[in-house]
Specification:
By secondary structure, the protein is α/β, with parallel strands linked by helices. It contains eight helices and nine strands. The structure holds NADP nicotinamide-adenine-dinucleotide phosphate. Residues 16-17, 19-23, 41-43, 46, 67-69, 94-97, 117, 143, 145, 188, 190-191, 193-195, 198 line the site of NADP nicotinamide-adenine-dinucleotide phosphate.
Length: 260
């Protein structure tokens, strides 16, 4: 691995969903810590703005516009990361969507889209990255959610998708342990990003949702992107060198609550 000016090893991180929210904050944080970062999402202008921000702080990053549901684009994105940044050490497949709807209110096409986006794209991105991770060896930190291990009404397909991510993390952790690759996830509670509004909540409903978050999260408030990015950076670091197959709640206690 290349050496940074501080003498620390410089890794290459491939981060999907880097144009917004948790992915963006994680890209900025890892770059600040000395990693070279491939910033991946569909919105080129937002990615370029992030790259400018990182380079303005003397970091190294490239923007790779890519729809993670299109296999050829992901394959090309990984190849570009390896050729332009010199490899791939840390995979953070953060791109994701949310949608409301019970089982009965969810058309099968919408269910398929959720699974294609939140599960299949994560699996496919890992499949493309693993041959490169094996050379270092590197690690993967995925994004689950409190909904991955607790049931909530009205977000059926999202809950199912995140449960699938958690089981993929455990299976991959076992499969890849002999290669020295660690695979973990974080499971955030509500974090302020664009996720819920992109998923259909209007501003008033979102404001009420955040307000209700003061009660639904035992620590008394919803999370910020730094809560998630710091946890991801920890799991991706050598400090977490003996942790694999873990799903770390980052949720202000949301996941341990129960109606009474
Ligand atoms: N925010 C929360 O409360 C929360 C809680 C638990 C878990 N999470 C998880 O955290 C992850 C990040 O979400 P966020 O809250 O940061 O949401 P966000 O602000 O909406 O960001 C989502 C990111 O995913 C990217 N994306 C969506 N569809 C894509 C596609 N087809 N191809 C490539 N990129 C795509 C978006 O970029 P483009 O539009 O530019 O493509 C964007 O960068 C998700 O997996 C989410 O499920 C979030």
């Amino acid at each position: 691995m290349a050496e940074t000016r501080s003498g620390a090893s410089s890794r290459v991180a491939f981060i999907t969903g880097a144009s917004s929210g948790i992915g963006r904050a994680t890209a900025a944080l890892l770059a600040k810590q000395g990693d070279r970062v491939a910033c991946v999402a569909r919105d080129r202008a937002r990615l370029e703005s992030l790259v400018s921000e990182i380079e303005g702080a003397s970091g190294r990053a490239i923007a790779i516009p890519c729809d993670v549901t299109v296999e050829a684009q992901v394959e090309q994105a990984v190849a570009r990361c390896v050729s332009e940044l010199g490899g791939l050490d840390v995979l953070i497949p953060a791109a994701g969507i949310i949608a409301s709807g019970s089982l009965e209110a969810t058309p099968m096409e919408a269910f398929d889209h959720m699974m294609r986006m939140n599960v299949r794209s994560v699996v496919h991105t890992a499949k493309c990255a693993v041959p490169h991770l094996k050379k270092r060896p590197g690690c993967i930190v995925a994004l689950s959610s409190t909904t991955g291990f607790r049931a909530f009404p009205g977000v059926f397909s999202y809950c199912v998708s995140k449960a699938a991510v958690e089981q993929a993390v455990r299976c991959l952790a076992l499969e890849l342990a002999p290669a020295g690759i660690r695979v973990n996830a974080i499971a955030p509670g509500v974090i302020v990003t664009e996720l819920h509004r992109r998923g259909g909540m209007d501003e008033a409903a979102y404001a009420a949702f955040l307000e209700r978050g003061k009660a639904t999260h035992p620590l008394g408030h919803v999370g910020q992107v730094a809560d998630a990015s710091e946890a991801i950076a920890y799991l991706a670091s050598e400090k977490a060198g003996w942790i694999t197959g873990a799903v770390l709640p980052v949720d202000g206690g949301r996941g341990i609550t129960c109606l009474r």
